[in-house]
Amino acid sequence: xxxxxxxxxxxxxxxxxxxxxxxxxxxxxxxxxxxxxxxxxxxxxxxxxxxxxxxxxxxxxxxxxxxxxxxxxxxxxxxxxxxxxxxxxxxxxxxxxxxxxxxxxxxxxxxxxxxxxxxxxxxxxxxxxxxxxxxxxxxxxxxxxxxxxxxxxxxxxxxxxxxxxxxxxxxxxxxxxxxxxxxxxxxxxxxxxxxxxxxxxxxxxxxxxxxxxxxxxxxxxxxxxxxxxxxxxxxxxxxxxxxxxxxxxxxxxxxxxxxxxxxxxxxxxxxxxxxxxxxxxxxxxxxxxxxxxxxxxxxxxxxxxxxxxxxxxxxxxxxxxxxxxxxxxxxxxxxxxxxxxxxxxxxxxxxxxxxxxxxxxxxxxxxxxxxxxxxxxxxxxxxxxxxxxxxxxxxxxxxxxxxxxxxxxxxxxxxxxxxxxxxxxxxxxxxxx
Length: 433
Description:
single chain; mainly alpha; globular; 0% strand
């Protein structure tokens, strides 16, 4: 497919803006930003575990790590990533992004409410609060993506800090004064997102806050990219959502909660990898524009990310005992912690690899790989749940991730469509773009 002048990662009109930042500083702030978001999420999940028990954490995990993350993936594919990899200041493209954003907010509120009522054992009142929180979260995410596109990672960190301070502050206040409920948990996320939205509106210049509606639109450049990108981003969190539901229904919500407690032990490593990923997508997009993106560079990113994550494993093992004590989680098996560590290492290497393919606008083959990934995750998780081997679910997730990424890499490599390869045809001509 041809994107012509429409696809200018970060907007070529902002080249001077990009050059005022060092890559090292950007990466550091991106990791800190992701750390702030994850730390607030970690505290909320820990409070749910301590106050509501393993069953409460299991239900909260379905809401926050399942439904919310899946919705965020769809939103990121259709709106978030296009903001980063296209010229968002092109009027025709901007009108499309504005209309998609409006649609996303309405759909996320409705779907979030219904999904919460169906997949999690919560009241419909709490489901409605969650639907509102989900819509606010995605609006906040739009502001975050604009800050990323402008490479204002320090401002992004401040924005994320407001979410954390408000959401965690409200929850801690509730714990100190009354009984914590699921409604208060998701309500605190709603209030935190509203605070972050307000700050993003203040931080961004007027040119970024204009919302043109009437006039010519250019849907094709965005839909050709976003259909596949949204599908790609959605498949894995959808698979993990269904895997969590399978564990909760086949074994019990408490078993899911204990599995999630094991994940909390490796959450800092997952956070660092995601933060590095937030930096790597715009970095690879810039390298692509400069003609210096190669799979050798991508491999270095992936190896460094996985190696850094592996260094965290001893800390997770040492923290297992104290964490069980302070959280009243019950026994978290060594096998479960080790399988989550395996998942963290594999995930750390996978993120920059997939981001490099996204920067090359190769979302279609990645999507089909993710479909295979999802089938493996859902089917495998159901099998190990039936065998009462919940500790093996992270291994199933890791296997799905590896297979789902290797398939498009092999296919693209054979077609000569990877960065740094001499291409007989363009990716679109090969049916890969």
